[in-house]
Amino acid sequence: MRTRPFLLAAGLLASVLTPLTLAAPAAHAATAAAPYDFNGDGYRDLAIGAPGATVGGKAKAGAVSVVYGSSTGLKTTKYQTFSQNSTGIPGTAETGDAFGTAVTSADLNTDGYADLVVGAPGEDTPGDVDNGTVVIIWGGSSGLSGARTLINYSNMGDTYRYGQALAAGDFDGDGDDDVAVGGTGLFSIWIVEGTFTKSGDFAGGRGSGLSYGPKPFSTTYGVEYLSAGDINGEGRDSLVLHGRAKGTDDALTAVADTGIDNFADWLEYVPGGYVSAVGDVDKDGYADLVIGNQREPAADPSGALGGKVTLVHGAPKAEWVDARSTSAFTQATNGVPGTAESGDGFGKSVALGDINGDGYADLAVGAAYESFSGAEDTGTVTILYGNAPNFSASGAVSLSQSTPGVPGTAESNDRFGGRVLLSDVTKDGKADLTVAAPNENGGDGAIWSFRGASPSTATSFGPSTTAVSTSGAPAFGTTLGG
User: Number of C-alpha atoms within 13 angstroms, CB side, residue 90?
Assistant: First the structure.
């Protein structure tokens, strides 16, 4: 049985699904802002999800903090924190909304300021529990302000937990960024097409079920994680979909060429994992894909002892079919710091960015359950440097709260490396490392910021720094975007 996409035209949507008023598209800026540059100053800013945050007395309503970049790194005195109780944000903070479960960014209305997209998959809508919602918060010269709800074209009981995964990119090659939204249920992936405006009709969208085909996805887990990039060198972004195999909880990962309307019929399956990142590791002009799988082979056939990451090389589309070049890395790989031990969770998180400015994307890998010094699940982060054709173990670095210069103390259940990010917050042309430990201090969570990946530059802050309540377990840093 072939998977059929659900395609919707903008005019039909306006009249049937949402009574919105047409508005003229916003004028395009000469140059669109880079993702996560919310105030247009050229520095990448950091979005931090705390989906467990208590807001207005409502447990796990969720919040997102934005800390702004500067020439000296993240400027914790310059931040904004948003919840569904914030002025201008649609909705109301309610128990279990989990606002901040996923974030992504692009200059959606091409005004020269990046916008922030936030998922709240636990949002209840009339007649539907956990239907989910997604909000766009608009960038501007003074930062983020004003918002609108991203349309849910399947607001008819076919999709649940809408917004549990997000990615932005130009998926149809028309030059405008689109937003991909993952959820559960019959239609588990949706693309809302650009251009976007602050009011008026959306441009249209398409969705698909992934539960049929040679390797069907589970509708229960749905699409749990998304990443995007021009892996095929076609001038448009492919979409990387993470879910579970139907009937199991084994990782299932596929690359979708979303330039095809019925893209779900033509998925390219790659090694299974739960997270991924896209960047040019070997400097050949094609974006490469890194997939993280933290599980043991007894629990997931795609896993490895202690966890692993897999590098899948980008290439012209014809070369991808049955001929993907891949390399796997574990803590047993020669030169990779540490030892592969059961339960380390190597690959729990991954990020790509050019730390040393040599043009090759480097890799940060979180091993959130790594244990040492008598403490359990303290966590580490490993840095592997990009090279041709693969990552080089030469100069590989391991970081933890036991590393000299890194603030804090390695304690049981901190899960340092639960999320990692590489982005240029200092505007020097090199990526800087951000590490989250969402379970730090009993579930409060905390963030570490490095210039490059140098431990001597590390600073740390927790949820109180950005006015996120520590009531309950906010899990500050469950999601990072930058």
Answer: 19
Q: What is the mean pLDDT of each run of 10 residues along the chain (482 residues)?
A: 34 23 36 94 97 98 98 97 97 97 97 98 89 97 97 84 98 95 96 95 93 91 97 94 97 93 88 97 94 97 97 80 80 93 97 96 97 87 93 90 94 94 97 98 97 96 98 97 98
- Cα distances from 164 to residues 181, 223, 224, 380, in angstroms, run 8, 8, 6, 26
**How many C-beta atoms surround the C-beta of residue 285 within 10 A?**
9
Distance (Å) of CA 237 to CA 175, 240, 286, 333: 11, 10, 11, 31
Distance between CA atoms of 150 and 201, rounded to whole angstroms?
11
CA distance 333 to 396: 12
Which tokens go with 318?
């014809």
Long-range contact set of residues 86-93: C-beta below 8 Å, sequence gap at least 24: 88/145, 88/146, 88/147, 89/135, 89/137, 89/147, 90/133, 90/135, 90/147, 90/148, 90/149, 91/120, 91/123, 91/133, 91/135, 91/149, 93/55, 93/56, 93/58, 93/61, 93/62
User: Can you tell me the distance from the alpha carbon of 78 to that of 206, in angstroms, rounded to the nearest whole number?
Assistant: 38
What contacts 467, CB < 8 A, 6 or more positions away?
65, 79, 81
Taking CA atoms, 418 is separated from 128, 305, 344, in Å, by: 31, 18, 12
